[in-house]
């Protein structure tokens, strides 16, 4: 008898210890102050590999259905994720690009060498007019990056005049000659790209002066005020942020930040064949964005306490080895559930920091790095990262609701990190949305979510989950990974208990 009692005591102790979970999410539904700018869901399209040519631009005479040379299937897919802004033409390409090469009759445009990306011929078929046509087909804002590294101030100020001025000038006459009467009035302008690296190998002190010269001559034309984005730091280069804010903060509207999740720059590892250790490494590096952004924001707060200057994370994402057999300079990589979790986690961080993070542009939109879309000839597939962008459209321009997460740890070998991350918002119709990621690929998680300061009437859910972290879509199995209806939750009063599958992303819509 005593033996039996002892055994049942030990058993129940085991159950308590193994089932005890810290997971909890508290959403302060009555405390929102800041809006999640839809521009956090921005894209980046560089003249690199098949990012533009083949992926977006096929030309008017292509058998692939197109509108004025731009692929219809790609535009239709991008419309579904409500792309708010596209950064173009680079990247490193921007600091070698002379925009006048890309205007006028296509047959007469010079052919140049794309020195950064494989020394391939760039025939300039896709230039300013074509890019702005793409943006107008998508209904999104353009974000143009000027050439500071090998260009001139005159060249970039001419570009702004050509694109934004409504009056008469040599540039506007040229624009009209090229078939465009009205200015486009482009707001976002980047003053160089990675000026500490491929954009000119400058020091922060030197670039701050260069930026001020450019900013002076990039004019606000009537009805077209500019949002000047200065080149910001590489990852955790806090000195760069400090110098830029101190010396030039008053002349910029935005400061960029570039950060990639990469295992090792010399051994990046396959995008599809990876171990759990490599997965944990990528997630740990993605979560590192949080303290890094916090440190950059603290420096910015010191020089700009009213938070006028936006932090613009205009290159981020996962970077792996290229797909076997593809040109190493084209950065073509597959995209798995790992990337979906990378994206959901980073986007939750950006949402929660939307007081300063005003834009983010994932690298890159089509066929390059962590892409939304992959194409092969006339075929097109969307990736698990695309699915996350589609699920997260509910956060666009919604009011961020402060969300506190307490989480169990996901531990694998030397890696240990919070399994759960989340962000929440309320849209203009009053609907609340919570996006939750479970990074643990080995365990499902029960997550109690408490909504404070608002009632809960109805809850619906969507989930992105697959059999393995390596799951991905291919041209023969385009729907291997796709979002599904989610019902594994219970509601009691203002508490929702969510049963997250391992390695999954859930969005709850709450009325
Ligand atoms: O996104 C690919 C490259 O990465 C960009 O051209 C450059 O800015 C960065 O180093």
Largest sheet: 8 strands, parallel, barrel
Low-confidence stretches: 13-18
Q: Give the CA-CA distance, first to last residue.
A: 53 Å
- Which quaternary structure do these chains form? single chain
Strand content: 25-35%
Global outline: globular
Strand adjacency order, main sheet = 2-5-8-9-10-11-12-13
Q: Please state the average pLDDT score.
A: 96
The number of distinct helices, counting runs of at least 4 residues, comes to 11
Compact description:
The protein is an alpha/beta fold and 511 residues long.
Question: What would your notes on this structure say?
Answer:
The chain has 11 helices and 27 strands. The strands form 7 sheets. The protein has an 8-stranded parallel barrel with strand order 2-5-8-9-10-11-12-13, surrounded by 4 helices. The longest helix has 18 residues, at 2-19. It is globular and about 95 Å long. A hairpin with a 2-residue loop joins β3 (66-67) and β4 (70-71). It has helices spanning 2-19, 72-80, 128-138, 153-164, 170-177, 204-217, 238-248, 276-287, 289-303, 337-352, 384-391, and strands spanning 24-28, 42-44, 66-67, 70-71, 85-88, 112-114, 120-122, 141-146, 188-191, 227-230, 254-261, 310-318, 357-363, 373-376, 379-382, 399-401, 403-406, 409-412, 415-418, 420-426, 432-438, 445-452, 459-464, 484-486, 489-492, 495-500, 504-510. The chain starts with a helix and ends with a strand. Alpha-L-arabinofuranose (AHR) is lined by residues 46, 90-92, 193-194, 315, 363-364, 369.
């Amino acid at each position: 008898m005593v033996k039996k009692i002892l055994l049942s005591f030990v058993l129940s102790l085991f159950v308590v210890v193994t089932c005890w979970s810290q997971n909890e999410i508290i959403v302060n539904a009555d405390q929102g102050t800041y809006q999640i700018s839809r521009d956090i869901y921005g894209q980046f399209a560089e003249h690199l590999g098949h990012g533009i040519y083949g992926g977006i631009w096929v030309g008017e005479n292509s058998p692939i259905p197109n509108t004025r040379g731009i692929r219809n299937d790609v535009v239709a897919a991008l419309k579904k994720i409500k792309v708010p802004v596209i950064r173009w033409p680079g990247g490193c390409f921007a600091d070698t690009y002379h925009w006048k090469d890309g205007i006028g009759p296509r047959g007469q445009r010079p052919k140049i060498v794309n020195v950064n990306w494989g020394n391939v011929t760039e025939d300039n078929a896709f230039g300013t007019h074509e890019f702005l046509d793409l943006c107008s087909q998508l209904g999104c804002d353009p974000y143009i990056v000027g050439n500071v590294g090998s260009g001139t101030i005159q060249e970039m100020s001419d570009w702004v005049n050509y694109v934004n001025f409504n009056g008469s000038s040599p540039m506007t006459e040229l624009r009209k000659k090229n078939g465009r009467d009205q200015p486009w009035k482009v707001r976002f302008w980047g003053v160089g790209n990675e000026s500490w690296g491929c954009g000119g190998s400058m020091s922060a002190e030197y670039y701050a002066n260069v930026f001020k010269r450019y900013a002076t001559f990039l004019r606000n034309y009537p009805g077209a005020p500019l949002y000047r984005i200065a080149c910001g730091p590489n990852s955790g280069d806090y000195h760069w942020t400090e110098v830029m804010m101190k010396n030039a903060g008053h002349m910029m509207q935005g400061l960029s930040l570039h950060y990639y999740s990469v295992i090792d720059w010399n051994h990046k590892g396959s995008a599809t064949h990876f171990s759990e250790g490599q997965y944990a490494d990528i997630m740990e590096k993605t979560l590192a964005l949080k303290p890094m952004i916090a440190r950059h924001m603290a420096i910015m707060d010191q020089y700009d306490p009213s938070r006028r200057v936006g932090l613009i994370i205009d290159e981020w994402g996962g970077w792996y080895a290229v797909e076997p057999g593809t040109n190493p300079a084209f950065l073509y990589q597959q995209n798995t559930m790992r990337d979906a979790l990378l994206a959901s986690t980073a986007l939750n961080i950006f949402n929660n920091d939307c007081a300063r993070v005003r834009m983010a542009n994932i690298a890159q939109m089509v066929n390059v790095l962590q892409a939304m879309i992959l194409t092969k000839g006339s075929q097109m597939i969307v990736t698990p990262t695309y699915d996350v962008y589609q699920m997260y459209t509910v956060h666009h321009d919604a009011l961020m609701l402060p969300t506190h997460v307490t989480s169990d740890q996901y531990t694998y070998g030397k890696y240990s990190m919070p399994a759960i991350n989340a962000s929440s918002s309320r849209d203009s119709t009053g609907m609340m949305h919570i996006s939750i990621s479970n990074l643990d690929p080995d365990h499902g998680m029960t997550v109690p979510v408490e909504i404070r300061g608002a009632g809960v009437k109805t809850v619906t859910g969507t989930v992105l989950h697959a059999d393995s972290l390596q799951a991905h879509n291919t041209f023969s199995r385009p729907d291997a990974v796709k979002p599904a209806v989610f019902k594994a939750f219970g509601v009691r009063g203002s508490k929702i208990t969510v049963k997250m599958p391992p390695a999954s992303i859930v969005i709850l819509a709450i009325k």
